[in-house]
Structure prediction request, 146 residues.
Amino acid sequence: MVAKCKTNNQLLKKVAEIYDWLDLQIRQSADTPAQCDACGKCCGFAQFDHRLFVTPPELMYLKANRGDENLKPMPTGLCPYNTGGKCTVYDYRFAGCRIFYCKSDPDLQSALAESTLQKLKSLCTQFHIPYNYADLPTALNTSAPA
Ligand code: SF4
Ligand code: SF4
Prediction:
């Protein structure tokens, strides 16, 4: 039990490191999501015609840091963590949320997404977590408690 807990803590630390790395890349980028005004429109995926994909370590990180709220299902095209246009899990939001900026270069975003995905994939291998890359509604609807 103690060993499992320690492994979980190590995993969470590694996810935090990946997000820190990602945030740094974004801050240093010339064409940057740091200019995003956090209007929250792109969190309404259906309306915005936008998709977001997530991996198991990201879901585990959100779940571990959200305490009782844990994972929520997503019955509509709006992310369940968006309330009144604002992200309620901002510090723990997914890599895709950090990378996407509606006005930045899609190629730059793809390159950043690819590098980040490789790091998350490596974590799955290191911690023996089955790798899965699912769109957010599918991931939340299959992971959230009924
Ligand atoms: S986690 Fe936050 S930033 Fe990401 S889609 Fe949901 S509300 Fe938007
Ligand atoms: S990326 Fe664009 S649509 Fe999404 S929150 Fe930022 S400014 Fe709004």
In short: Residues 2-143 form one domain. Residues 2-28 form the longest helix (27 residues). The chain has six helices and four strands.
